[in-house]
Amino acid sequence: MAILKIARMGHSVLARPAAPVEDVKAAEIQRLVDDMIETMEDAGGAGLAAPQVHIPLRIVIFHAPPSRNDGAPVPLTVLINPVVQPLDDRMQVGYEGCLSLPGLTGAVPRYHNVRYSGLDRHGEMVERVAEGFHARVVQHECDHLDGVLYPSRMDDLSTFGFVEEVRRAMMEQKE
Ligand code: NI
Question: Which one from 141, 164, 165, 175 is the annotated catalytic residue?
């Protein structure tokens, strides 16, 4: 296992569509999944997509503790060649961060309810419905596979900034 270098916004690998994985069980895919998990844990993120570690393949991983998902933990999930579909038109705006934009955050509208599917690392089909933060993290990670970073999903760029500054501005607003 190895901790991989994470590409930052502006790198071309983050701006182009990734290719489907043909052989999920191939040794190099299994090693990549292991390395992605180790890299995500080291960096402290909720999710990671293969293009973020300079590999343009359609693989995402994500997880969340109960505190981030209304009390329901999102288990560590590996999704290969994923498909995400909104279940209705309802959108929810929430702050996101990304390991490829270190230190930054912004408010992003996402579908509140989605269905997603894909293969796990053993080649078995995974199909789930998700809402809230769980749905948000899936949409964010799968966007990486199409070369889309969260700032281009934002509809109010005044909410975009460095985490400490955005947090301070929110505190000031509450006072
Ligand atoms: Ni990201």
Answer: 141
